[in-house]
Queue: 2 jobs
Job 1
Amino acid sequence: MSFVSEFYNFLKVRKKFWLAPMILVLVLVGGMLVLAKGSAIAPFVYTLF
Amino acid sequence: MIILGISAFYHDSAAALVKDGEIIAAAQEERFTRKKHDSRFPFYAIEYCLNELGITLSDVDYIAFYDKPFLKFERLLETYLAFAPKGFKSFSASLPVWVKDKLFQKKTIIDELKKIDSSIDFSSKLLFSEHHQSHAASAFYPSPFEKAVVITMDGVGEWATTSIAVGDGKTLTMKEEIHFPHSLGLLYSAFTYYTGFKVNSGEYKVMGLAPYGEPKYVDKIYEHLIDVKEDGSFKLNMDYFDYCTDLKMTNDKFDQLFGAPARKPDVSPLTQREMDLAASVQVVVEEVVEKLCRSAKEKYGCENLCLAGGVALNCVANGKIVAKNIFKNVWVQPAAGDAGGSLGAALASYYHHLGNERVVHPEDAMKGSYLGPKYELEDITKELDSVGAKYQVYDESDVLEKTAELLANKKAIGWFQGRMEFGPRALGGRSIIADPSCEKMQKTLNLKVKFRESFRPFAPSVLEEDVTNWFDYQGKSPYMLMVAPVKEQHRRAMSESELKLFGIEKLNVKRSSIPAITHVDYSARIQTVTEKTNSRYYHVIKKFKEKTDIPIVVNTSFNVRGEPIVCTPTDAFKCFMGTHLDALVVENCLLLKESQDQTLLERYEGKFDLD
């Protein structure tokens, strides 16, 4: 939770809220790529691309 | 107040400990783990720093990390956005690493620290300093100046690749920055890559190779690769570089510009072309640095300059800045690379963030950069006994006398004494020393001791009072970060046929009365030695001078190619037995190769990954 608030503050200070949606998507995709390494999620990721 | 500085996770992890503004200890993790450029969390370096002061982590008031991970992530994202859809390969390779680890670096650091002491609440103690703020702090706060212009240049930190700050007392104010992807460090690294050396470690080789070449590509570089303004600000033409979008530095267009693909490391031989390329990029970097310095001097009006960041390790460029007298005084942080960021982060926290008063040391506050571990005689003999070494213990004056005698007899000696150096240079704590007047010494040391490329030059350690008699250099260079020419009177006149030699052929020509440390352009990377900062080293050179009239020894780091510089007496003994070193001096213990158990001889060549 502290990570989320710290990241929120970071975006606020840097005035970069426009990055937020992108970060969300990227973190989700990135998270999947991490999990996909040799896991059952791999086929799902392949269909995405 | 005690502050622990940490740099980690990219390259050259290190820790530094500052107590009430005094630098107590600093060391790179690679020296303990024996893995060159080790980027892992610096457990061993932290342990050493705490032991040096006899404290535990609970006694530390703040822990300062040397860069800001969120800012770096922002740069990463915006860079990919700017180049999308190009760069997907690199993006998909780096994003998982970020999502898994680097984005949560604060947590990672806390988790790692908790492995040392789980009872401490680290979140309230942890501070983050910007990468270039850390570099600037490492250059300004230990410097002997009350006020100075601070220029930092490296590959990249968060966004900044070059910065100009002004330090005044305890404050350090960032004035100007040049942002990624426009980077002098990355331009140099691109040529390092293109000439077939490893990025982040082969830059020294490019600098060493440059004097063999002709700077015939300078115009091409200015015309196509970099746009430099009069104030030294610059922009790279990203059409020729791939580091934003790919996992390599240069691209096909770059290859076309210079007429061939990048040299394959350790496969294709070095040719005149690589030497000319090295000479060209060196000239460009020197000119940009000079312009930056001139404009900073003009704008901020200080007489003192401090330098840090990887580009500040380009001692040829540093030497030229000094020679051109742009500033009255120049001071370069000896650990100018990322390892020094640990020290900078700690000092920035102490002075800039917490507002503590600064006391300026008239020499500087780096203690000669001898900030690493030291071993007592009892521990040394115990270690040497355990590895089966045969040695003689002498009193100090005898061991110095015998070392000088061995040097005068053209022996190559492993020299281990006092505290280990912080930073990439060996300064007489963990050094290999030899007679500079010996014609074959450069080749012998390169090929039989260091197992590295024959073109690489060696540096001299010279008594400070004699430096002006041997080199065109005034003043001090205690950290071997200045290059200056050997004085005319010590040079040897070239014959006509020798003058016609080209490129690497120049290597075998004797150029001066101290050929082992005279590079092909008559330059030398000088270390001035004083009794105050390193008494034993000073006296061994002095005794050598008494025997030979030469107040200079060859000084190269005590390691082989790809190996971190030795840290312990055991490391030193192993390196001694694995190379063609003739003798090893560990404090008051003298070891001769012929007296050792020959079954302990080891083949060190190829033992370490090449750098």
Note: Chain B is about 35% helix and 20% strand.
Job 2
Amino acid sequence: MLIIGEKINSSRKDIKEMVENKNKNFIQELARQQVEGGAEMLDLNIGTIRKGEPESMRWLVETVQEAVKVPLCIDSPNYAAIQAGLEVYDANRGEPLINSVTAERERLELILPLVKKYQCSVVALTMSEKGIPQDAKERLEIAHQLIKKLTAEGIPLESIYIDPLTLPVSTNIQSANIVLETLRGIKDSYPGVKTIIGLSNISYGLPQRRLINQAFVVLALANGLEAAILDSTDQRIMALIKSTNLLLGKDEFCKQYLQAFREGRL
Amino acid sequence: MVELKELDEALFRGEVSKVKELTRLALQEGIDPKEILEQGLIKGMAVVGEKFKSNEIFLPEVLLASQAMHGGLEILQPLLVKSAVRAKGKVVIGTAKGDLHDIGKNLVAMMLKGGGFEVVDLGIDVSAEKFLKAVQEHEADIVGISALLTTTMIGMGEVVTVLEEAGLREKVRVMIGGAPVTQEFAEEIGADGYAPDAASAVDKASELMKSLGRE
């Protein structure tokens, strides 16, 4: 499972301030902590910075690259910000991940050329002009459309990450079930395509959010999840992922589990 | 004898059938619908708003309380209309064009209803033209716009512009909110008010009604 660190996200007020003030030390420390916790990629999301998002994204990519070696996930609905980030991205650290396209035609047409030009992987959200479907069936329908469109443009199946869109369980008690059903459906139809979720949204609006996130990651893994944007500094979540992978038969000779044990990470 | 305090407590606990029952009982006992509304439902929702703001209760509890409020309101509405009790004001609300995030907008709509306002909810992804049409059609006092994305925030300014072009800007107040929205941004686009959360939105709406001289 690909672990993507979620913390460099400007929806958190302190992060927003640090990016706006270009506080290099703070951002680099946050990047290091997440990689140290087990992140194999870092998500960069500055969607709440309105003025000069492209410029901020460029600074952020450069700043984070200086501190850690992992590839980056450029997370923005804004085409210009994605491009600015990719322009300074160091391709030696591995394929960047663009987050995200949707079945909305305009967004797809703007971002697709970037995916091709910079040879990125891409997150595709199961939503369209009509919004986010209420049930798994329609989300799967959109996933099919997106996969068809992206592969027709020459993007390899394994570079496509389908995100079934996690909405808070606090506003719809079926939110998790819908995601799990969509994950299963995608893996059934397209074993080669990858699946991804932003984990923490599930617990929005509830106390002790970590507990819900922890339970959800286990369920999602058991239903075909292959990548998640999450808090890699939460040791419990990381240990749960290790032990769940083990139980799902994905950790030959329990190697990774035992290594984590020896490193004191369980 | 029904105590209206019981009603607002039942509302706070989200007990839909109890709220309905107490509302009916209060009416049978001849309590003025306006008083039931103000001392029972509105007061109850105000407590819900406060406790939510201070993290003592959580989102699902607010949703449940709001259902309970609707239960009571359904019974009161026809009587309130008959006795010509007017809402505090009429608010047309929706998310900005291109924005599909509606949790915040729904909360504000609920709290406004709970605060005695009439709310016309236009839903998600509402264009400036649609806001304008709704303002004209419903003779709204206030337009409420919500956005979660910086890319959709721009749509808020467009609403202000179309209201100006239609010559309605003096007659209606515009209030905005959402994660990336700030007071500074509100001033920049010429909106009249900004509220950081659903409970404050009710205060802000009341303040705007006052500024219109329509309280």
Note: Residues 90-211 of chain B form a domain with the Rossmann fold fold (CATH 3.40.50.280).
